[in-house]
Design a protein that fits this description.
By secondary structure, this protein is of the alpha/beta class. The protein has helices at about 20-30, 60-65, 85-95, 105-115, 125-135, 140-155, 170-185, 195-210; strands at about 5-10, 30-35, 35-40, 55, 70-75, 80-85, 95-100, 120-125, 165. Helix 1 crosses helix 7. The model has no long low-confidence stretch (mean pLDDT about 90). The structure holds guanosine-5'-monophosphate. Guanosine-5'-monophosphate (5GP) binds near residues 41, 74 and 106. Guanosine-5'-monophosphate binds near residues 41 and 83.
């Protein structure tokens, strides 16, 4: 039987480069599944329904909440965002490490529901760089950028409740650090209890035989 995968929660300020780092991770490593969220926000140019998000109406989102179809959800800058539960469970059962790219409210809710989940926060090397990246993206108005910077300042307070931070200085290095960190979770004692029990039993049996 395959070991159940780990649930990995990745958060980080808008513009910190989570998407680029994850793209590199998925291109270079196997064994990961990315949970596509549902959202009520409008698609940005180039975003594809079912790939980047499931773009749904407010009514449909509220129906998903009612039907308990979401593992968690939150509101962020005026829109709903949530994680469809079925896909996550299926992939974890298949042994994949499932990555949720979600904001802090949702992340802290996951930690309560799934204590074994690993919460990782991606930080920029400095605030100025973050501002420049957000402006450089050119997809948002100054007003939305200002709101996102304010939200970043508010979120920074919650970073202390995460398990790990990774700094995005360089995309390849950051993806390699993320991978190393996730792989290390596989070696935790509590992730390997069935194996340890089996080995202990075998040792006991052999010692009782007196060989
Ligand atoms: P964006 O609009 O820039 O794509 O995402 C805004 C924020 O919502 C990001 O911090 C992103 O990580 C977060 N987010 C995306 N999907 C989900 C989700 O399913 N649940 C929660 N709680 N946050 C999400």
């Amino acid at each position: 039987m395959k070991t159940r995968g780990s649930l990995i929660v990745l958060s980080g300020f808008a513009g910190v480069g989570k998407g680029t780092v994850l793209k590199t991770l998925f291109e270079t490593q196997e064994g990961y599944a990315y949970s596509v969220s549902a959202t009520t926000r409008q698609p940005r140019p180039g975003e594809v329904d079912g790939v980047h998000y499931f773009f749904v109406s407010k009514e449909r989102f509220e129906e998903m909440i009612q039907n308990d179809e979401l593992l968690e959800y939150a509101t962020y800058v005026g829109n709903y965002y949530g994680t469809p539960r079925a896909y996550v469970e299926e992939k974890l059962d298949q042994g994949f490490d499932v990555i949720l790219e979600i904001e802090v409210q949702g992340a802290l809710n996951i930690k309560k529901k799934v204590p074994d989940a690993i919460l990782i926060y991606m930080l920029p090397p400095g605030a100025q760089i973050l501002h420049e990246r957000l402006k450089g993206r050119g997809t948002e108005t100054n007003e939305v950028i200002a709101k996102r910077m304010l939200r970043a300042a508010q979120e920074a307070v919650c970073v202390s409740q995460y398990d790990y931070i990774i700094v995005n200085n360089d995309v390849d290095e950051c993806a390699a650090n993320l991978h190393a960190l996730i792989r290390a979770q596989r070696l935790r004692v509590r992730s390997n209890l069935p194996f340890i029990r089996k080995l202990t039993k075998e040792l006991t049996n052999l010692s009782e035989k007196g060989e």
